[in-house]
Amino acid sequence: MHKKTDLDTGGAGKAPPAIYLKNIYKSFGAVQANRDIDLHVNAGTIHGIVGENGAGKSTLVSILYGFYTADRGKTEIFGAPVKLRSTADAIAAGIGMVHQHFMLVPSFSVLENVILGHEGRGSLQTGLEKATSELQNIAEKYGLQVDLHALVKDLPVGLQQRVEILKALYRGARVLILDEPTGVLTPQETQQLFEILRSLRAQGVTILLITHKLKEIMAVTDNVSVMRNGEMVAHLETQKTSPEQLAELMVGRPVLLTIGYDSAQAGDICLQVEHLSMRDDSGKNCLRDVSFTVRRGEIFGIAGVSGNGQSELLEVLAGISVIDAGRVVIGTTEMNADNPATPAEVKELGLAHIPEDRHAVGLILPFTAAETAMLGYEERGATRNGGTFLSPDKITRHCEKLMTDFDIRPADPNLKSSLFSGGNQQKIVVAREISARPNILLVGQPTRGVDIGAIEFIHKQLLALRDAGCAIILVSVELDEILNLSDRIMVMNAGQNMGILAREDADVQKIGLMMAGLENAGEMAASVASEQEGGRHE
Amino acid sequence: MNKDALPRWIDIGLLPLINLAAALVVSGIIIAIIGENPFVAMGVMLKGAFVYKGALGYTLFYTTNFIFTGLAVAVAFHAMLFNIGGEGQAMIGGLGVGLVCLALDSLLPPLLVVTVAIFAAALFGAVWGVIPGWLQARRGSHIVITTIMFNFIAASVMVWLLAGMLMAPGQMSPETRSFAEGIGLPQIHDVLNAIGFSVAKSPLNFSFVVALLASFGVWVLIWRTRLGYVIRATGHSERAAIYAGHNPAHIIMIAMAISGGLAGLMSLNEILGVQERVILNFTSGYGFTGIAVALMGRNHPVGILFASLLFGALYQGGAELDFEFQTITREMVLMIQGLIILFSGALAYLFAPLVARIYFRLKAPSGGGNG
User: Fold this and answer.
1) Fewer C-beta within 10 Å: chain B N or C terminus?
2) pTM of the model
3) Is the Cβ–Cβ distance between B317 and B337 less than 8 Å?
4) How many CB atoms are closer than 10 A to CB A530?
5) Element (DSSP H or E) covering residue A276
6) How far apart are CA A298 and CA A261, in angstroms?
């Protein structure tokens, strides 16, 4: 059915395309967010749109869902010309949307969330009953099993997303738009989502998948369109392309997807963690008896499904959380339950921290870039002689230097932090922490929501810092990132250290089993492999 | 398309003016309904505030009160604390002034007593602000609730003291004895007349100069010191402040102390500037109006100066209005003030979407949308 993806041939005799856009233009003030966009999505296929942050993907999707009205251009849905002036128009045309940030009422049940806006007249009870039977049909048809009476706030993120999909289907969506759907999912949840998308496709639903992750495009789409600077630069058949080609089209120049790795020259031990345990506010054991050491000049990767203690571990090391048992030794300074260290004290020991949550912790969004670039280093970086008064000159010059050294765009120190793209916001944080010349650098999710060009840059910076003798502790839910950069890898499950693998011994299968909580999984995987080999020999 | 994209001169200049105009239009309509000519009334008000003999002095006298209470609200607001307690902090500040003057006026030279009293005003106000701050920082009691309660406590304490141990002997009204001769702040008209300018008598006094200095001080504090930076950082994101190595509990208490101190200084204007004794209810709601002043002034000292001048003019001009027209009562003047607070405070961004649309249509080459 999709052997050929010529744009302008609607094709005689074929079903009309689910989405057909021609010459779409949209500008905000002087910014041309979408320029001469053509798009042709065949019915019953999964179609990807890739592009870096700011390439115009979100604007295009917003036009399709009726949030914005295009300045110019033609839109057809299943062959019928439509004017999408509001989301109601889009829903009526059979378009459903799953937003990156879910639009659910946490304290409502799944059922209540689904019928919100479609409660029906009169008694709520009849509406609920009608919806229940209808939803059971939908769930069965598409394999979307969710407990309708569970409260949304009790559901894991993956299931919440499923509720969003149910909601769209309940409203009669035949075209489903998913905007960066895997940003909040674990690898397992991502696989489950892809299963759902495939079964939706089998039932004839058309899916438009917006993402910046090339792996996902390769894994699940039939066709892919690439956007750059507000324009469509290519329409490709997924089978006939490669991640390298897509990355080059997105960025406009060849990009290294995996960074060149040189083996590390590890030096003295500079961080020791011994029998570390901690309970969170609700009393749950989020760290249990964790021990490891880190040497200068190595990258120590911590792998694990999100929520298995990695975030808490970083916060402990940064002095933000206080431990209950065990000890952490940085250089010669010890912190433990009786002698906790504050973030300021830890910083004095030469530790810097790129936090996981860039928006709430790493940056202060309403501040200018220059103000954000001095956060935590006010005394050194921003005052006259380390005193009480700030020096605006010094603050601006410091930021300008970071912007030059780390290629932060736009290079305007007075621009609000919130107005930078995700990649450039992250570069501000990375630049600030690296420029403090730390001995130890804590890094949490360094490339979450960051575009490919910036990922490459940040990875290079981390390796360069390692080579300069800094110890780096890297936490990431992107397993590839851990495998690419780390010299040693610790895997965490339920707050425990499941084992530490040297780079040479680490592979996805082993780490995956350890992430799932299997004790000695490393050895098990190895023995399984050797048995299989043995079997072949016999 | 958010308000980030609007240039500053619109956000802090044009929008407040539009809000003010809207409030005046609605007031004018109401004045017309009761049968008076709104333009004549407006003329009387303006003359009453700025033109009549001594009017400007009175206007600036009220302005002084609003500058102090407006700055108090603004400093706390930069730490995202809504300090509703300016009224109580000003009362207790006045108590500090009174205690110092009553205790020392027969012992020390007047200049020294007054200097100590100025510090006492700030210190007592700061203490009254820092207690709710401590409760918020250490016990999680919401600052809005506690500062409101502390207004009531302050009012009760003042009644108890002024009708009790501080009441002047042989007196029937709840107030202290007058301070000794010479204990008070220099009057501006005296100073100006002495250097050769002929100025009508008004209650405007040295507190006005203190208020201007305080405005400059607050600007320096918030935008030019490390402490101000940390206060703003804590206000925007407590987690980021912790990450950066600061202690939000300390910052909250420091910000509330500064805020309370500024509110306490308001008492100088009334107690040392005019009454030269402590009376009951000398704060007359200035602490509450300070909230509207800070909102209208966008929590910036320059904005607060202009907003204070506006409210000072309303107070003084409004009194004139009440005096000139039989039909326009004191309550009517309060209503006009209420409308201004409504439009510039509660409905501050009512016209922002409209202005933004017009602005972007007129001036296409600037601003930005994120794709």
Assistant:
1) N
2) 0.80
3) no
4) 10
5) strand A269-279
6) 12
DSSP B72: H
In this structure, what token pair is assigned to residue A470?
A: 């800094």
Contact A389 B225 (CB under 8 A): yes
Domain total of chain B: 1
pLDDT at position B259: 98
The answer to whether residue B224 is domain-embedded is yes
Contacts of B140 in chain A (CB under 8 A): none
CA A181 from centroid of its chain's CA atoms: 9
Choose among A230, A343, A389: nearest Cβ to B371.
A230
Could you tell me if residue B165 is inside a domain?
yes
Highest CATH level, class, for A269-506: alpha beta
A244: which 2 tokens?
């390298």
> What is the pLDDT at residue B2?
41
The structure tokens listed for B302 are 């320059």
**Contact assessment for residue B293 and residue B315, using Cβ atoms and an 8 Å cutoff:** no
Segments of chain A scoring below 50 in pLDDT: 1-12, 525-538
Q: Which of B243, B358, B366 should one mutate to test binding to chain A, selecting the residue with the greatest count of A CBs within 10 A? A: B243
CATH 3.40.50.300 domain range(s) in chain A: 16-94+174-251, 269-506
Domain assignment of residue B332, yes or no: no
CB-closest option in A30, A58, A318 to B371: A58
Which CATH number fits the domain A16-94+174-251, given the four candidates 3.30.70.1150, 3.40.50.300, 3.10.150.10, 3.30.160.100? 3.40.50.300
Asked if residue B314 is part of any domain, the answer here is no
Mean pLDDT of B95-111: 94
Running DSSP on this structure, what letter comes out for residue A151?
B
Average pLDDT of the segment spanning B177-193: 90
Rounded to whole angstroms, the Cα distance separating A429 from A228 reads: 25
CA angle B124/B288/B22 to nearest 5° reads 150
- Domain containing B138: what range? 67-299
Determine, for residues B233 and A361 on separate chains, whether the beta-carbon distance falls below 8 Å. no
User: pLDDT tens across A318-365, in order?
Assistant: 999 988 999 999 988 999 999 889 999 999 999 999 999 888 899 999
Asked whether A505 and A489 are in contact (CB, 8 A), the reply is: no
Question: Which amino acid is residue A463, in one-letter code?
Answer: L
Whole-number Å distance between alpha carbons of A96 and B350: 33
- In tens, the pLDDT along B240-289 reads 999 999 999 999 999 999 999 999 999 999 999 999 999 999 998 999 99
